[in-house]
Amino acid sequence: MSGIENMPFRVELLTDMQDGQLRRLMRSFRAEIGEPPLDEHAYGRLTDAARIERIRFFAVWCGERMVGMCSVAACFSTFACGETGVLDDFFIEPAFRKRGIARMLTRAAQDYGKAEGMASLTVCCAPCDEDMYQSLGFDTRLGATFAHLTGA
């Protein structure tokens, strides 16, 4: 990390999904959670969803290097009778962890949700990550999350 230890971080809402750095970070994220990298078709679907703003990506930069990311996807909630958001794709390169980046990312996502009029921003996580997300402001437990995987 020589030379970047004291560089400031900045968070930005991504507007260019073709940036190779997002793809690199997504590949690292998926490898860390034991998933294969996205193939061309899947990455194309992701960039199409971002282009029409079904999903928004936030990136943390250290100089010209993207070192962290998260996404927010909006959905309509009949409970709230309005938009809610789901935080996902939360990843920070290991060498940059424990430096306040998680707080910067979640604050940007939370501020975005508020500005967009979302009634809530939720996150689904593994039990080992619960304390981290609670410390980042996700402090209301809504029960358990279950999924039916359709294979699509």
Task: Sum this structure up briefly.
With 152 residues, the chain is of the alpha+beta class. It contains four helices and five strands; from the N terminus they run E-H-H-E-E-E-H-E-H. It has a single domain, classed as Aminopeptidase (3-Layer(aba) Sandwich), CATH 3.40.630.30.
Structure explained in plain terms:
The protein has a 5-stranded mixed beta sheet, with helices on both faces. The protein has one domain (9-135): Gcn5-related N-acetyltransferase (GNAT) (Aminopeptidase, 3-Layer(aba) Sandwich), CATH 3.40.630.30. It is an alpha+beta fold and 152 residues long. The mean pLDDT is 90. The chain has 4 helices and 5 strands, in the order E-H-H-E-E-E-H-E-H. The relative contact order is 0.15. The chain is globular and about 45 Å long.
Give me the CATH fold name: Aminopeptidase
Write down the overall mean pLDDT.
Answer: 90
Number of domains: 1
Show unreliable segments. Answer: none
Task: Report the radius of gyration as a whole number of Å.
Answer: 16 Å
Instruction: Supply the number of helical segments.
Output: 4
Order of helices and strands: EHHEEEHEH
Shape from CA axes?
Answer: globular
Strand content: 25-35%
CATH superfamily: Gcn5-related N-acetyltransferase (GNAT)
The biggest sheet amounts to:
5 strands, mixed
Share in helix: 25-40%
Q: Write down the CATH class.
A: Alpha Beta
Q: What is the distance, rounded to the nearest whole angstrom, between the alpha carbons of the first and last residues?
A: 40 Å
Class based on secondary structure composition and strand pairing: alpha+beta
